[in-house]
Design brief:
heterotrimer, A mainly alpha (about 375), B alpha/beta (about 250), C mainly alpha (about 300), A: about 375 residues, mainly alpha, MetI-like fold, 11 helices, 2 strands, about 65% helix, about 0% strand, disordered N terminus, disordered C terminus, B: about 250 residues, alpha/beta, 6-stranded mixed β-sheet, 4-stranded antiparallel β-sheet, 10 helices, 10 strands
């Protein structure tokens, strides 16, 4: 092995410029070689390999990431612990039981003073208000998404998208405030009578509630709140549909609607379903706005215009002033049920959305 | 001052791909050495093994011995320590986008905890002068971001950044391939001036560039080093048929 | 198919197209209307109800006119500082793990998925969990535990920030070009230093925006505070005492029977929104002058 060094024979071009800074080199700390090393080099050699710091940093970051699991564990543990008393008292009966009032023979579900607890009206209220909200929000959200991606003039697109996103930034309490003072009176005076008049025959709308509160009010405000989530996700998956798909359908002589239906919606449908489920998850857990307008009566009526309640609402209303340990425990069990349902719904939505955004819609079929 | 590099039986894998096979060579100190070869031949992998950048990819693996000066880099030291002694200039200019020109040059020292402000000023100035960028940027050292410079200036900034830590070896991975001809010739001039002080290893796909700046040239093909000779010999009288084919443009 | 049938179908298709277009436009109008209405009411009612007293006085006893929400504004501030102190560092740390250390690993995928699911857990459930942990019993290892307190409210909000901050941090870090990381490693900078001073710093405008979004989200949260911070009609700055918060105060006032309190609720809602927008734009402004400048 030879470390022979030759002066290069080939010099096609000579260096044209001399480096300017070379002359003052005796002042430069890095170029005063003592023991063969410049001060800079000596400094760098003195620095450790920071293996300990690197490993510590790594584990600290892992710890931060694991805290996410910690939070879930905390929630599960606290909910299980808190609901233990109610669980041992009622078992699964808690979720279907009803009581008969000894005085008037009426069915009741929730009477903290007499120790009667059943989750039925809360589950009913949460489901009814959420699905009603979806029925209102989904067509509108898809309509908005279609308008924004396919029809809207370019200069309107930005502001409108911004507006719908702004809706998501408004706190739930402000929606509730608006609903209590503006939406509910509006419904009471103008909408509820119409619903009764034209849809009363279904039995679902009976205008016998003078307050204007109830499922319809809750569903409308919920719909307004989940609209931005559904429409922005729908918009996202619709824009992700490649342009060639649209052109292919248009080239067959399709009208714009046919192009949207066959070229865009068909390709985006899994993502849209994911968005809808995500909206459902939000609706199920929404607390403040619903609590303010749903009426907070633990009863079940066929009419959607009557007062109702929801799982989140009863927690917000009664938890801080629970009259007994069993009452509090029953409330926590409702919280546990709500947690499990929203976890499942959200996980489902997440899987669907991931399947789409990762460009593998086939897996989700 | 630069030190020599001694490579023995170097093998590298990228996943199941055996990208470097039994490389042996001695790179002389304070000279420029060029590595040429068709793309995918392993020359970039080779220089990345010289400062242990290759192993930043989790599926990469290396065996063999690399000595830089007296230091066996795969057994005597941690990657961090190696990389402080072996500077690297990448194919695409990669200044730190959020830092000023000054901070870009000082980054290697500052981020390693160097706090002497006055000597830092001198080092930044000298490094920028050595990379022939000083005159162009001296008025807005701290005002302009590194990303606001032109491509050629950015690459010289990256060279200044590598010089600021006073490395013993400077690795350059196709440093001019993303640049225009004028910037390329500036970089070449720079290499020509720097090689008296540093051991320079330059990967290039441009044979004229190798001929212009390097004393020695290695030819890589399919993960093996076919020939390592003085540049003059490689370009005028290569001993291997494959080298000759490549030099004369029969493939690659 | 005869020509007549063809024309009929063609006309039908055209009509459907027009109908769908009209419906889409209609849907947009229907969606935009309540938004405009909410903002209009907020501005009109809120602005009409705002006065100096609102910012300088604490609430009056029920039935008395006047008073303000000064204590609630301060209380929200304290809660949010505490929440940010908990949520932002842990969230950013988790994001760093996902983007820099765990890329592609099973653990990272699990963390990512759990964070996304956690984002959808109702805030009221988070409140119940923190109630169980901090409020319901006294623990020697948790400060201020065993009763309603500002501390427990801050913890609840802070925990809610973690998944959002974590995921946005990850997304922003992934946008930093690989070349920038290589440049730092090539200089022999220790990994922790390279991550913090190079990668995180390069991504900082986006990370800060993500933190502000998380902040804005919890700033308006009411549900997790109902049985943690509880609310307070008086001045309180102690982490050991129940504390007032704007959203809580708005809730109490909105459902009260007094017109004067309704007025204050509107004013509170306006202040809440303005504070959220102000906080977000302030940070945007500061960062656009400092860090962001370099990225142009």
């Amino acid at each position: 092995m030879h470390v022979e060094v030759k002066v290069p024979e080939i010099r096609l071009r000579q260096a044209q410029t001399q480096p300017e800074g070379r002359s003052g080199s005796e002042k430069n700390p890095a170029q005063a070689p003592r023991d063969g090393h410049s001060p800079v080099r000596r400094f760098l050699l003195s620095r450790g390999n920071s293996a300990v710091a690197d490993r510590g940093f790594h584990w600290l970051m892992v710890l931060c990431a694991l805290s996410i699991f910690g939070i879930v564990a905390l929630i599960v543990w606290e909910l299980l612990k808190g609901s233990h008393l109610a669980w041992t008292s009622f078992h699964f009966e808690f979720f279907y039981k009803s009581y008969t009032n000894t005085f008037d023979g009426q069915t009741s579900y929730w009477d903290p003073v007499n120790g009667q607890f059943s989750a039925v009206p809360f589950i009913y209220g949460t489901l009814v208000s959420s699905f009603l909200a979806l029925m209102i929000a989904v067509p509108l959200a898809v309509g908005v998404a279609i308008f924004l991606t396919e029809m809207c003039p370019r200069m309107l697109r930005g502001p409108l998208a911004f507006l719908t996103e702004l809706l998501a930034a408004i706190p739930s309490i402000v929606y509730g405030l608006w609903a209590v003072f503006e939406l509910v009176p509006l419904l009471r005076v103008h909408v509820n009578p119409l619903l009764t008049q034209y849809l009363g025959w279904t039995g679902l709308f009976k205008d016998d509630n003078p307050t204007g509160l109830g499922f319809v009010a809750a569903a409308v405000i919920l719909a307004i709140m989940i609209l931005p989530i559904i429409s922005s996700l729908t918009r996202e998956v619709m824009t992700a549909v490649p342009h060639s798909q649209r052109e292919a359908v248009l080239a067959l002589g399709a009208t714009r609607w046919e192009m949207i239906r066959m070229g865009v919606l068909r390709n985006a449908r899994i993502g849209i379903v994911g968005g809808i489920i995500l909206g459902l998850g939000r609706a199920l857990g929404e607390t403040m706005a619903v609590t303010m307008v749903i009426g907070n009566t633990p009863e079940i009526h066929k009419s959607l215009l009557s007062n109702g309640t929801s799982m989140a609402s009863v927690l917000a209303n009664e938890f801080a002033e629970a009259v007994s340990d069993l009452h509090r425990s029953a409330l926590i069990e409702i919280g546990l049920a709500l947690f499990i349902v929203t976890i499942i719904v959200n996980a489902l939505a997440q899987l669907l959305v991931w399947a789409v955004t990762r460009g593998a819609p086939a897996e989700a079929h | 001052m630069g030190v020599g590099i001694e490579v023995q039986n170097l093998n590298a894998w990228y996943g199941n791909n055996h990208t470097l096979q039994d490389i042996n060579l001695n790179i002389p100190a304070n000279h420029a050495t060029a590595l040429i070869g068709p793309s995918g031949c392993g020359k970039s992998t080779f220089v990345r093994c010289l400062n242990r950048m290759h192993e930043t990819n989790p599926i990469a693996r290396v065996t063999g011995v690399v000595r830089i000066g007296e230091l066996d880099i795969y057994s005597d030291a941690k990657p961090v320590e190696i990389r402080r002694r072996v500077g690297m200039v990448f194919q695409r200019p990669n200044p730190f986008p959020t830092m000023s020109i000054y901070d870009n040059v000082a980054a290697g020292l500052k981020l390693n905890g160097y706090a002497n402000k006055r000597s830092l000023d001198e080092i930044v100035e000298r490094s920028l002068k050595n990379s022939a960028l000083w005159e162009e940027v001296k008025d807005d050292l701290k005002k302009k971001s590194g990303a606001s410079l032109s491509g050629g200036q950015q690459q010289r900034l990256c060279i200044a950044r590598a010089l600021a830590v006073d490395p013993e070896v400077l690795l350059m991975d196709e440093p001019a391939s993303a640049l225009d001809p004028v910037s390329t010739s500036k970089i070449e001039d720079l290499i020509f001036q720097l090689k008296s002080q540093y051991t320079i290893v330059i990967v290039t796909h441009n044979m004229q560039q190798a001929a212009r700046v390097a004393e020695k040239t290695g030819f890589f093909l399919n993960g093996r080093m076919v020939e390592f000779e003085s540049t003059h010999k490689i370009f005028t009288n290569p001993s291997d048929k494959r080298t000759e084919d490549y030099i004369t443009g029969r493939f690659g | 198919m005869s020509t007549g049938q063809f024309q009929l179908r063609s006309r039908l298709r055209g009509a459907t197209d027009v109908a769908v277009t009209t419906l889409a436009i209609l849907a947009t109008v229907v969606v935009v209307t309540p938004l405009v209405a909410i903002f209009a009411y907020l501005l009109v009612k809120g602005a009409a109800s705002l006065n100096v007293d609102f910012f300088t006085h604490v609430p009056k006893p029920p039935g008395e006119l006047g008073g303000g929400m000064a204590n609630a504004i301060l209380g929200s501030g304290i809660l949010l500082v505490l929440a940010s102190a908990i949520g932002i560092p842990i969230g950013i740390g988790g994001g760093i793990f996902l983007a820099e250390f765990g890329r592609g690993s099973k653990l990272a995928n699990a963390v990512r998925f759990t964070a996304d699911v956690l984002n959808g857990v109702p805030s009221i459930v988070m409140g119940v969990a923190v109630y169980g942990l901090v409020v319901s019993q006294q623990h020697s290892f948790i400060p201020f535990s065993g009763h309603f307190s500002a501390f427990s409210g801050g913890v609840a909000l802070g925990i809610m920030m973690i998944p959002t901050v974590c995921r946005t941090t990850e997304e922003m870090l992934l946008m930093v070009p690989h070349a920038v990381r290589e440049a730092a490693l090539g200089l022999g900078v220790p990994n922790w230093r390279s991550v913090l001073s190079i990668t995180v710093r390069t991504a900082s405008p986006g990370i800060i925006t993500g933190c502000m979004l998380a902040f804005a989200r919890v700033a308006g949260e009411t549900a997790p505070l109902i049985f943690t911070a509880l609310g307070n009609q008086f001045w309180s700055t102690s982490l050991n005492e129940p504390i007032a918060a704007l959203p809580l105060q708005i809730w109490v006032y909105a459902l009260s029977p007094y017109d004067d309190w309704h007025r204050l609720a509107w004013a509170g809602a306006l202040v809440l929104i303005v504070l959220i927008v102000l906080a977000v734009s302030l940070v945007r402004f500061v960062t656009s002058r400092g860090v962001l400048k370099g990225t142009s």
